[in-house]
Design brief:
Blueprint: H1 2-14, H2 19-30, H3 34-41, H4 47-51, H5 58-74, H6 77-83, H7 85-91, H8 97-112, H9 116-121, H10 124-132, H11 139-152, H12 156-163, H13 167-175, H14 179-193, H15 197-205, H16 208-214, H17 221-234, H18 238-246, H19 249-259, H20 270-283, H21 286-292, H22 294-304, H23 309-323, H24 326-334, H25 337-352, H26 355-369, H27 378-390, H28 395-403, H29 408-422, H30 425-433, H31 437-442, H32 450-465, H33 469-473, H34 475-487, H35 494-503
Helix pairs in contact: 1-2, 2-5, 3-5, 5-8, 6-8, 7-8, 8-11, 10-13, 11-14, 13-14, 14-15, 14-17, 17-20, 19-20, 20-21, 20-23, 21-22, 22-23, 23-26, 25-26, 26-29, 28-29, 29-32, 32-34
Length: 504
């Protein structure tokens, strides 16, 4: 096989229009399993294929990229570093996006390898070329460059090279290209900072993080919104949150929420500020965050009652996040009438809002009502039951009505609420006392999409797994539920199958 590939390479180098020969080589390579390809291609000189990239013929370039992609993936990163550094460096400045991505992908493989990375660290020109790719117009190229540099920073030599050599100046020069490119560099810096406290230290010393934090209070509201998103990503790691707290960023964002009252453009960045604290609450402690920054919780309630769909959507998602935890449920319950008003709004939106808001309301309600078996204390069961009854005079009928509407996402959202209450004794009592409800659960003809079948199966699974279900629902229903579970989500009864064939 190696001989035939070599002869095809020979043919390619001897013809004027090599497209047909390239196609033959591509077909030959695809017929060899990747595991066996390494033996067939190591030792081959690929100069001829790399040379053929220097053309305006789009088809020829694409074939060369496909061939090189296949061959290079079969070669070890060390072999690539020793034999194809110059060719990959050339690929970084090629006019075609696919060639750049090919080069960046292979460089990414090399920087991940403990031995091959040395070849890259010793080649300033390649690293400079990768950094320059961040300012490429095509986002796919920039993303690949960011990924490769992020991988490089997983080692101390990589961090030293990026932040303690003239490459730092190259990054800062690239940043100056435009607002969009500046934020791509910030994205890289945040990604690197998230790896460890040491990598965060390098980024902080480079002054790039303080520059990002300064953008939080800039004049341009869109830039402010993007900066908030970046800072939220930085807060996903514990060391990132500690750093932000030391820099007083939590207080700054809290004050920005307060100041948003009088800013006519606040709708651009306010959702991001709320998301920041929502994520913070989940990662640290809902109670601590809500008590330390009461302006956050008040703003979420205010946004839930706002007429603006963007504000409502963010509020619903944040309430769902908070209410998914026991501590978050208790924090919301403490607010008394305020939260009741919000819950009524959620119920109203679930019934008659725009479809997207209906789905987000249903998801938030299901998170608020979910209690894992180990969390089911008397107090918490009383809390979820009281919330369910606040939704409507007949909440089980209300959710059932939503589930029968011809929108798969609403059907599944309603089923998720039933799944949330299915593990709780009060939920099971409601289900068994509602005429026709068990028949609805066991009816496989309702909801024909895969998502709907999966959602129904999850509901049945929640009931069967509950330790109280057999007693509350009765043995007859319980046995039928277990049968449903055993048959799986996509079971079709033999009778139904025969009648369908007759209809055909």
């Amino acid at each position: 096989m190696a001989a035939s590939i070599e002869s095809l390479l020979g043919e390619i180098s001897s013809v004027e229009d090599p497209v047909e020969e390239l196609q033959s080589l591509k077909t030959a390579l695809l017929s060899i399993p990747l595991s066996a390809l390494r033996d067939s291609v190591s030792g081959l000189r690929l100069d001829v294929i790399f040379a053929l990239l220097n053309t305006n013929d789009r088809e020829q370039i694409e074939l060369c990229v496909d061939i090189l992609e296949r061959i290079l993936m079969a070669l070890s990163p060390v072999y690539l570093g020793q034999n194809y550094r110059a060719e990959l460096q050339g690929g970084l400045t090629h006019p075609e996006e696919t060639v750049k991505i090919l080069a960046l992908t292979q460089i990414g493989r090399m920087v991940e390898h403990p031995e091959a990375v040395t070849e890259i660290l010793n080649n300033q020109d390649i690293l400079r070329g990768v950094i320059h790719c961040i300012r490429e117009e095509k986002m796919a190229v920039a993303k690949q460059a960011i990924q490769s540099l992020s991988k490089l920073s997983h080692s101390k030599p990589g961090l030293d090279k990026l932040f303690q050599s003239d490459l730092l100046k190259v990054m800062k020069d690239v940043m100056a290209t435009s607002d969009i490119i500046r934020y791509r560099i910030y994205e890289l810096v945040v990604e690197i900072s998230s790896v460890s406290p040491i990598s965060l230290g390098y980024c902080a010393n480079s002054s790039l993080i303080s520059q990002l934090l300064g953008e939080l209070t800039g004049d341009d509201v869109l830039i402010r919104a993007t900066a908030t998103e970046m800072v939220t990503n930085l807060a996903r790691s514990l060391h990132g949150r500690q750093y932000l707290a030391q820099q007083g960023i939590m207080d700054k964002i809290s004050n920005m929420i307060r100041g948003a009252e009088t800013d006519p453009f606040s709708s651009f960045y306010l959702p991001g500020l709320v998301k920041f604290f929502g994520n913070l609450a989940i990662m640290d402690s809902p109670q601590q965050v809500c008590e330390t920054y009461p302006v956050f919780q008040n703003k979420v309630f205010e946004m839930a009652l706002d007429p603006d769909p963007v504000m409502i959507g963010v509020a619903l998602d944040t309430l769902g996040l908070l209410g998914a935890t026991v501590e978050g449920k208790q924090v919301l319950q403490k607010t008394g009438e305020k939260f009741k008003a919000v819950l009524l709004r959620m119920s109203h939106l679930a019934r008659s809002g725009a479809t997207e808001l209906r789905v987000r309301s249903l998801d938030a309600i299901s998170q608020l009502l979910t209690l894992q078996p180990e969390q089911q204390t008397e107090d918490l069961l009383a809390l979820t039951e009281s919330w369910f009854h606040l939704l409507s005079d007949h909440p089980i009928d209300m959710i059932h009505n939503i589930s029968t509407q011809p929108f798969p996402e609403l059907h599944c959202g309603a089923l998720r609420i039933f799944t949330a209450i299915a593990t709780q004794p009060w939920g099971q009592k409601l289900m068994i006392s509602t005429p026709g409800f068990m028949e609805f659960i066991l009816d496989r003809s309702a909801g024909q999409t895969k998502e709907a079948k999966d959602a129904k199966f999850e509901l049945v699974g929640s009931l069967v797994s509950s330790s109280t279900a057999a007693e509350i629902l009765g043995s007859q229903h319980y046995v039928r539920l277990k049968t449903y579970l055993r048959e799986g989500p996509y079971y079709v009864s033999a009778v139904a199958a025969v009648s369908t064939e007759g209809a055909d």
